[in-house]
Amino acid sequence: MGAGILLGCIADDFTGASDLANNLVRAGMRVVQTIGVPEGPLSVEVDAVVVALKSRTIAPEQAVAQSLEALAWLQAQGARQIYFKYCSTFDSTPQGNIGPVTEALMDALGCDFTIATPAFPDNGRTVFKGYLFAGDVLLSESGMQNHPLTPMTDPNLVRVLQAQTRRKVGLIDYRAVSQGADAVRARIAELREQGVGMAIVDAVSNEDLLRMGPALKELPLLTAGSGVAIGLPANFGVAPSPQASRLPPAGGLQAVVSGSCSLATNRQVLDFIKSGRPALAIDPLRISAGVDVAAEALAWAEPLLESGPVLVYATADPAAVKAVQGQLGVEEAGAMVERCIAAIARGLVQRGVRQLVVAGGETSGACVQALSIAQLQIGPQIDPGVPWCHAQSVASGGEGLHLTLKSGNFGSDDFFTKSFKMLQA
User: Which residues lie closer than 8 Å to 406 by C-beta, 6 or more apart?
Assistant: First the structure.
């Protein structure tokens, strides 16, 4: 691998990993996303590797252990800087996992200071005076307060992060960021003097992210959503290039599977149905009753696939989700649906689907594991934070598979239909 990779990234879910890799590719880096920690070195020359973990909602000690394993592998590949990537909605609970994983990585790297910012203006995530906004409203009014696993009821990120960490949390506010890299460096020095170990950083535009980029060059560890990535490749002398996102040509059948219950995905499901394409809703209570819902869905899909994309979804509104959780329990309800959709995804690929859209972070993790995918080559962006990828899957009999892993909150209303049109262009 020559001189080793420039940037080593650890993502806490699979869609978030694609989102980060997408921003790095757009800025000119050649990127591979691995599913879990690889067992050996990579066989290709790349500038950055994003190790995708499924650690956002597991117990903090497990998330820490997996993240440290990823760090050790990235260090063995020569990574010059480490990037811990979490959701642009800062998904976590008072127990973690953002704070505990950040602390463990800091301890392992021997660093006394890092930044934290989920800002991603292209997707409406902005941070102002330490408060996180989703679009025009505070995070706590955006629908995220109803998230089934990580309800976000406090938009003040300094408070949220301080509850999860022993280190003192501070703020690099918009006044420093707006003045550029030197002002950000000066503020970092000031915070260090005050014994601050982590600092939330304001950003309301891409310009803010690009301005702070050079100030982050010397930090061994960065923690952020995917937005900060746009300002990092230039630190390594990398410039945007169309070569970075080139994938093999696409063919085969098309399908969408969705397990996300976010407002954005609900709209995307409705848009797909309104377009006249076939869609099948999954009922979690029938899965819990022992019905082979995956087999039913595959039998339904098989005769329809030749005429264009189909959608299988477990997407529902918050009230319906809570009703199911009340009967089955929060964790079992989610895991059961993920297992079912993953089995459907595998069956679809076995039936000739070679262009697959997966909606939902936890769902994407389950599907990628069910498809036995070890790594993804990152291609062109469909919508901010969501690229097409190319992978080899055991289920596809060795044929290449085009795959997009969409975070529940991301994408335009017509995302599902637009994705496939883009591959045909």
Answer: 15, 260, 265, 357, 358, 359, 360, 364, 386, 415
Q: Closest Cα partner for 404 from 235, 256, 209, 250?
A: 256
Determine the Cα angle at 363 with ends 360 and 367, to 5°: 130
Amino acid in the structure at residue 216 = L
Rg (CA), the chain: 21
Q: For 270-279, write each residue's pLDDT tens digit.
A: 999 999 999 9
Give the CATH number for residue 301: 3.40.980.20
Shared-domain flag, residues 378 and 298: yes
Give strand ranges (E) for 1-117. Answer: 7-11, 31-35, 48-52, 81-85, 114-117
d(CA 46, CA 399): 23
Residue span of the structural domain in which 115 resides: 7-241
Question: What gap in Å lies between CA 153 and CA 340, rounded to an integer?
Answer: 30
Residue 76 tokens read as: 């063995």
Distances (CA, A) of 386 to 17, 23, 122, 337, 365: 10, 9, 11, 23, 15
Nearest to 370 by CA among 348, 387, 399: 348
Percentage of the chain surpassing pLDDT 70?
97
The tokens describing 24, both together, are: 């790095």
Do residue 110 and residue 146 come from a single domain?
A: yes
Residue 192 has a pLDDT of 98
State the total domains in the chain: 2
Beta-strand pair 48-52/7-11:
parallel
CA distances from 380 to 21, 27, 88, 96, 384 (A): 10, 12, 20, 33, 10
Q: Are residue 407 and residue 290 in the same domain, yes or no?
A: yes
Structure tokens at 340: 């079912």
Task: Give, for 328, the enclosing helix (H) or strand (E).
Answer: helix 318-328
Mean pLDDT, rounded, for 372-384: 92
In this prediction the pTM is: 0.84
Q: Is the N-terminal amide bond of 123 cis, ω within 30° of 0?
A: no
Q: Judge if 305 and 348 occupy the same domain.
A: yes
